[in-house]
Amino acid sequence: MLRTSDFNYVLPANLIAQEPSSERGESRLLIVSSEFRVPSSELAPDGPELGTLNSALFQDRHFRDLVSLIPPGDLVVLNTTKVRHARFLGHRPSGAQAEVLLIHPGQDEHWIAIGKPGSALRPGKRIEIAPGAFIETVAVLEEGYREVRFVGITAEEAMRRAGRLPLPPYIERDPTEADESRYQTVYAEREGSVAAPTAGLHFTPQILRALEQKGVTLARLDLEVGPGTFKPVEVEDPARHPMHPERFELPAETAAKIAELRARGGKLWAVGTTVVRALESAVRGDGTVVPGRYETGLLIRPGHHFQAVDRLVTNFHLPRSTLLMLVSAFGGHARIMAAYRHAVAARYRFYSYGDAMVVL
Fold first, then answer.
1. What is the pLDDT of residues 116-135, one digit of tens each?
2. Average pLDDT of 223-245?
3. Cβ atoms of residues 335 and 38 within 8 Å
4. What integer best gives the mean pLDDT of the chain?
5. Whole-number pLDDT of residue 34
6. Which one, of 164, 219, 230, 225, lies nearest residue 197 by Cα?
7. Can you tell me the distance from the alpha carbon of 229 to that of 199, in angstroms, rounded to the nearest whole number?
8. How much is the pLDDT for 232?
9. What is the pLDDT of residue 46?
10. DSSP letter at 233?
């Protein structure tokens, strides 16, 4: 059985993308073929030297080349969630700084949130986020979550006036005006996430139009990405990792398109790990994908039997993360870890604003 340490890899800090590519669609694309098998002799803890790998196992392309890979009649599923301005930097009565990140609405106009320092988020404590506007902690929940409410301002007005775009913690700068568009997909619709479905950041209206003109069907769902997407697995047994549930909605139109796809024998392309989690959570034993509103805490790791997804478009993920485990489950652990070593050696850009890979 694979342990969490089996999903570790060495990444030079200068390969963590701090800025998006100059233009959408111009990022690089690593194509990983299912024909690849890694010899057991190359599975040393540090991995093989790149020179021992056949370069034909991986193809280095650009994201715009994805259009040529997807045949007519196939289905591409996108996550249309939009990142809300959910991060607040404020002050305690003492003047000391504090931070709150809204996760999702609760009941009675309350919100579920996390923040720091913990001492500033005890029940009854208030953080001033704008003159006369406060976030007050109502209750402390499990795993560090808080139930909070807004005082002197509505949540919507607070996000509009004082909320910040919550860039990932590994982007070591404040958000800029450019991030307002580049950290959202071009097809984002309803606000609900604290992080972007980053595989979708590479798509342009031109790429989407080219796919449809080619005869590729597009479908949508909405999964609200939570902060757990950045949380490393801290236990050696991945099964003991607490998955933070994420809410999603799968429209009836998308379920119908998937049923039509299966009837004609086409392939389903998931854009991002969020789409994979949603579809694999909504699929039934007979392969039918059922529409509806759900909450998923599904942890996908090697050994998972995929029933809904045939192809995966994704970014490069953090070591020891549930996202890397998911990609390894889909493409094979040895193959994906070798692909990551190739990407490091070829100086791909990693994480949210980084390059992409497609697993066939």
1. 999 999 999 999 999 999 99
2. 90
3. yes
4. 93
5. 66
6. 225
7. 13
8. 84
9. 45
10. P
Please report where in the chains the tokens 């289905």 appear, as a residue.
75
In terms of C-beta distances under 8 Å and separation of at least 24 residues, what long-range contacts does 90-97 make, across chains too?
A: 90/127, 90/128, 90/129, 90/134, 90/135, 90/162, 91/127, 91/128, 92/120, 92/125, 92/126, 92/127, 92/128, 93/126, 93/128, 96/120
Buried b (16+ CB within 10 A) or exposed e, 252-270: eebbebbeebeeeebebbb
Q: Let me know: does 352 contact 195? Beta carbons within 8 Å.
A: yes
Task: Give Cα separations from 286 to 149, 199, 282, 299 (angstroms).
Answer: 44, 28, 12, 21
What's 345's DSSP letter?
Answer: H
Give per-residue pLDDT as tens, 148-166: 999 999 999 999 999 999 9
Residue with tokens 């030297």: 49
Indicate whether this model's pTM tops 0.70: yes
CA distance between the termini of the chain: 24
Instruction: Give, for 180, the enclosing helix (H) or strand (E).
Output: helix 177-182
Q: Which of 308, 300, 314 is nearest to 272 (CA)?
A: 314
Give residue 61's identity as a one-letter amino acid code.
R
Q: Do 278 and 248 contact (CB within 8 A), yes or no?
A: yes
> Structure tokens of 257?
């398109």
Instruction: Tell me how far apart the alpha carbons of residues 162 and 133 are, in angstroms, rounded to a whole number.
Output: 10
